[in-house]
Protein 1
Amino acid sequence: MKHEIRELLPFYANGTLDEPDRTRVEAELAMCAQCSAELDELRRLAATLRARAESAPPPPPDIFASALARIDAADTAPRAVDAQVSAASGPRPPRSRPRLPSWWTIPARYAAASLIVVTFGAAAAAAFEAYESAFVGSSPFGTGRAASGPDTVFRYTPNPARSAEAAATSGRAAAARRTLTLTTVRTRVAQHAIVRVRAADAQRTLNAARVTIRAEGGTFTPMTTTMPARPTSEAPQAPPSSEAQTAHAEPTPSSEALTMRAEVPASRLHTTLDELARLGTVEYRAVTADELESVIDDEQATLLALRAHETALRVRIARNAAADDRAGLAHELAAVRREIAVLEARTRSDLHRVAAATVTVTVENEPPTTTSNR
Amino acid sequence: MSDADDRRLLERIAARDRVAFEAFFRAHGAGVHRFVRDIVRDEMLAEEVTSDVMVEVWRKAGTFGGRSRARTWLFGIAHHKAIDAVRKRRANTVPLDDLLDLASASGDPVDAALRADERARLDAALGTLSAEHRAVLELTYVEGFAQTEIAEIVGCPVATVKTRAFYAKQRLRDALTAADTCR
């Protein structure tokens, strides 16, 4: 067998030879029994190796998350120092970010309505929306908010009082916190707004509300809920919690109200509410907020500690622990990674709740001017 | 997934699109991990190197020049990282034994035992080869790359790849034969 042909056979066997080489090999194969035997052997080898590959165990499920965590760590560190970052998700429309006030007051125009605003206001949350959406957007299985990523990243800063409180309950979390730098103070809240509007044409007004929400960078569920309208004098209730019946673009009788749920960037919540208020007569408007500062602080600190623990385990394994130890350490490593995955998902969800305020919009038809049913 | 799809994903990854990154590794992650594991022959190290490869793709996607297939570029990174890891830890490479229970899912325990035995023999024989030879076997017979592509992946002339592919097969056959005579 010619040496030249022998070296081409593996690539004839895997079907990647170009035309001239293939022709040469085939000419040789027609004349050389040894070549044919060699080719048979190579084909068997290929089949064996492929079968072995196909039955190989898949990569660990958390390997992707682990790579993304490393990317996040690498991406975030220098940006936090600079406190400026370019958009992390490619081109997107320019987005102006209002100068942040050092304090926040309830706008007088909201006071006229039945308004509930908890202590931690929207502006405080808005100040950190950029940071939060960066974190949410950077998650391996992100909520899609990366598309509206931040202009500015603020360094993560735990509330010192809360840190002290947490230190008493979680040594691990508190230890992790010590590595963080205090540069600013903030409060994270999950906001929910309820707006109830009366308008001449409920369906048209609801469509206009959708346009408004989209213009503010929000999203809404395509489904609307139809429910009986309340008497005008009735005290406001909690927003409908279930979508019992749905109606799509149907003209609604005056006895019904249309409701939809939407999400808007937390920083745009009050602008959105202002815009929605222009669509009709505001019957009721409220903003409630759940404070998540301590929850997220604890989640993030615990995550830092878990990742440090994971790294330590990997180092110990890599340093050639005895075989028995390796098995135990590998088991522990898997458990730590599971814990990290669960906690990451929970943190992403909480950060999303902070970054995106929910809005329940209800539009009722204006009552008829004449009472014809009596 | 076609090369055009891969290229589009790499472009999006270069623009920091995590969805594209996930899609890219959903398509190629298992192959890369298997290739790396066969070179380094250590589960933990393979995981680490695969993660290194992913991070490198994220960082370097923008440098993909498009002269080769995206897969070739990817396996070039994987090969470089894996060989580098082997060289750093050549003195204490741990034999890969986690794969021996693969056949345990089979319905017939005798079949399973036979297959596991065959698998163990093959793994042991592959273990006697150099990392470079294992890489060429994997790239040729499992991943189905052309000789020029393998040359690009491993950073050697085509002539070296051909010689390596030939000797890798010879060494594997010798190792399997030796294993047979020792049974």
Protein 2
Amino acid sequence: MGTMEQSFDLSGGGRSRRRRLANRLAEVVATLAALSAVAVLAIVVLSIAKRGIGEISWSFLTEPLPLFGTPGGGIAPLIVGSAILVAIATVIALPLGVLSALLLSEFASRRLAAPIQLVFDLMSGLPSVILGVFVFGLLVYGHTQSGIAGGFALSIVMLPLIARSTQEVLRLVPSSQREAALALGVSRWRIVVGIVLPSTLGGIMTGTVLAISRAVTSGVSCRPASSGPTATTVCSCSCSTCRTTTTSAS
Amino acid sequence: MSTVPAAETLGGTQRLRDWIGDRLLLILTLLAALASVALMVLIAWRVFRGASLSWSTFGLGFITGTTWDTNAGVFGAGTLLYGTAVTSLMALIIAGPLGIAIALFLSELAPRWIRELIGPLVEMLAAVPSVVLGLWGILVLGPFCANHIEPWLGRWFGWIPLFSGDPSSSGVFVAGLILAIMVVPIVASICRELFLAVPSELEDGALALGATRWEVVRGVVLSSSKPGIGAALILGLGRALGEAIAVTQVIGSATAINVSLFAPGDTLASRIAAQFQGAVTKLQISSLFYLAAILLVIGLVTNLIAQVIVRRFDVQRAAD
């Protein structure tokens, strides 16, 4: 270390000092950037928790919504609503996503896979407010809001996520296993059902849980489709009410 | 002796079952994939069809029209396009450098255990529900901006029209900051993957030639992942363009274009989210569909650009 320092001083002088300063500066900036992101996360979580923790009680979680203007009440219908909508969404999105991923990674040729892959990538980038508008136009407009419509909207949120995560775990199955099975004369569907799916089940479950967490927190996509007495989720209700509650509180 | 024909018949049914099973699985997976593609087409078709009434009333003038008057039945997206552009750009200007710096810290500087600690934390920032982030914007960030950041900006940069005007706790500025918080983890996690994929021989070579870490980063890491960084920024932009709820909560609501960042505004997505429940006339609903159609086109184009870059870049990486 000491000799390095010395040789730099002999050759560089001011220029070497400037280079080392720039290096130090860049390190400090990058470290600060990372710390600031963590700090923002901590501030968000702590300030929300500080305000909310006092409100959470057993009755808050289990009682029905308060009537307008009366104190007390809870969020039980919202929790049940979230569960129902997400259950509907999972029933729709899980088979579609897993089967599509199977097609992409087990059967499809490159030319068939590329456009389907692109569609999934585009779908996952769709603004969720558009999904709400779409489901409203398709199922609600001229009919009534329903839990099915809301669940359908959430399933579009989940579908590309499940498809992608399934594809990723399918890629982890060693191709030597598939080839060994093929060499033994096992048919394709038996390979999928007997080897590929069992070894990726855990990964598919993980992906599904992550997709569910996204769906639960996506309020805007299901709000136009189902709200009020039909089925409201925690997030879609907090979307529509928190503006009014905060203005009245302040 | 007698087992031979039995084995043969077994083989026969087995083969038939395999034939059917193979076809069945292939058809099922094909149907599922086609259904997904059809769903995407259906989304676009339904949104555009919903906009048809507004389209026949206002035509292309809707895009530039700046009035949004529910009572008079005159609608235009000009104000909202401006608001969307300003908030998204602001988010990108803040979150781009920040996300890249975080990615550099995680991939180049941090020791392994810090990387494994901070990496997931940064990604958790993306998992904060946007409703929660918006609520936090109302309760914490908005007042903080109104009391501290905006007066300071106004004092030093008030001569720029963007930073003129009275500080307020809900407006374009707060919305831009909230969006930036949402975009940072996207940019950071994509860029980190990019930087980790840079061949270490290149970095080691540059270090061996006496380059400092920063020079390695600038000359090797950043320059070799330029297209990927571009794609990461565009994906982040797509997120900022489409975010509705959090923006609705903090941006206030404006019917005219305000130059000042501290004044209230509105974006395409936030207007849809704010008015969809209360829309009464057919023309208003159709106009909201029109807004969604514009948002859909913008979202698809940005995502398409990002995907094209990613694909070309992947091919290039694979060839190297």
